[in-house]
Amino acid sequence: MDISIDFMRRIAQAAAAETLPRFRSQGAVANKEKGSFDPVTEADREAERAIRALISAEYPDHGILGEEHGSENISSKHVWVIDPIDGTRAFISGLPVWGTLVGLTVDGDAVAGMMSQPFTGELYYANASGSHYEGPGGPRKLTTRKTTKLAEATLFTTTPALFKGAARERYDQFEKQVQLARYGTDCYAFAMIASGSVDIVADPGLKPYDIVALIPIIEKAGGVVTTFDGGPAEKGGDVVAAATPELHAAAMAALRG
């Protein structure tokens, strides 16, 4: 099935109505994880509630999996996967590199998705017509860079600290092989692969709502997204995305050792 850009815009607008007024507002932050720090804000919860209401009204038979409000009807052929604010740490720090992620799976495969960054006025989305951008500079179809060599690549990861033990040693060696490595930016880095500004993103320990929306955006722009061992990324895990199949194979080999 195809998802209209109009529906994606409506989702982005509904989420922005909840997130933007609370961005840089010094609102309350709760911690979801005892013994660690996994922040959640009122903006997260209310944005997801608004998104779920739109999906339920438009597609009442579809399932929904959300980071903040759990799952419903996920045995359905069609399941929407929601992260209302991917990058809550950036959000509470006042950095505009968070985004709203909403993706659709059909029989477990990610087929459509959107990443909205309302503070910068950007919308990245993919549907049956391909991968697209709307925002500053005007609308355009997205395409990845044609980088094939690690030595010419720009790499992002949230932080090398997420790699543990031998995996950290492999990551450190991997980073030495690329031209430029940068940290942070969560979903924004993945969107930059589709837009042709970044070549590789490697992030361990992702959840489905961290990646499902981004898979079709990258794939329909010419990139590749899998787990480190080459499996499908829709269920999360250790995920690597790259601008070209050749670069993806090189990155995967480096990360597996």
From TrEMBL:
<comment type="pathway">
    <text>Amino-acid biosynthesis; L-histidine biosynthesis; L-histidine from 5-phospho-alpha-D-ribose 1-diphosphate: step 8/9.</text>
</comment>
<feature type="binding site">
    <location>
        <position position="86"/>
    </location>
    <ligand>
        <name>Mg(2+)</name>
    </ligand>
</feature>
<dbReference type="GO" id="GO:0007165">
    <property type="term" value="P:signal transduction"/>
</dbReference>
<dbReference type="InterPro" id="IPR011809">
    <property type="entry name" value="His_9_proposed"/>
</dbReference>
<dbReference type="GO" id="GO:0004401">
    <property type="term" value="F:histidinol-phosphatase activity"/>
</dbReference>
<keyword id="KW-0368">Histidine biosynthesis</keyword>
<feature type="binding site">
    <location>
        <position position="83"/>
    </location>
    <ligand>
        <name>Mg(2+)</name>
    </ligand>
</feature>
<feature type="binding site">
    <location>
        <position position="85"/>
    </location>
    <ligand>
        <name>Mg(2+)</name>
    </ligand>
</feature>
<keyword id="KW-0028">Amino-acid biosynthesis</keyword>
<feature type="binding site">
    <location>
        <position position="67"/>
    </location>
    <ligand>
        <name>Mg(2+)</name>
    </ligand>
</feature>
<feature type="binding site">
    <location>
        <position position="210"/>
    </location>
    <ligand>
        <name>Mg(2+)</name>
    </ligand>
</feature>
<dbReference type="InterPro" id="IPR020583">
    <property type="entry name" value="Inositol_monoP_metal-BS"/>
</dbReference>
<dbReference type="Pfam" id="PF00459">
    <property type="entry name" value="Inositol_P"/>
</dbReference>
<dbReference type="GO" id="GO:0000105">
    <property type="term" value="P:L-histidine biosynthetic process"/>
</dbReference>
<keyword id="KW-0479">Metal-binding</keyword>
<keyword id="KW-0460">Magnesium</keyword>
<dbReference type="GO" id="GO:0046872">
    <property type="term" value="F:metal ion binding"/>
</dbReference>
<keyword id="KW-0378">Hydrolase</keyword>
<dbReference type="GO" id="GO:0008934">
    <property type="term" value="F:inositol monophosphate 1-phosphatase activity"/>
</dbReference>
<protein>
    <recommendedName>
        <fullName>Histidinol-phosphatase</fullName>
        <ecNumber>3.1.3.15</ecNumber>
    </recommendedName>
</protein>
<dbReference type="InterPro" id="IPR000760">
    <property type="entry name" value="Inositol_monophosphatase-like"/>
</dbReference>
<dbReference type="GO" id="GO:0006020">
    <property type="term" value="P:inositol metabolic process"/>
</dbReference>
<comment type="similarity">
    <text>Belongs to the inositol monophosphatase superfamily.</text>
</comment>
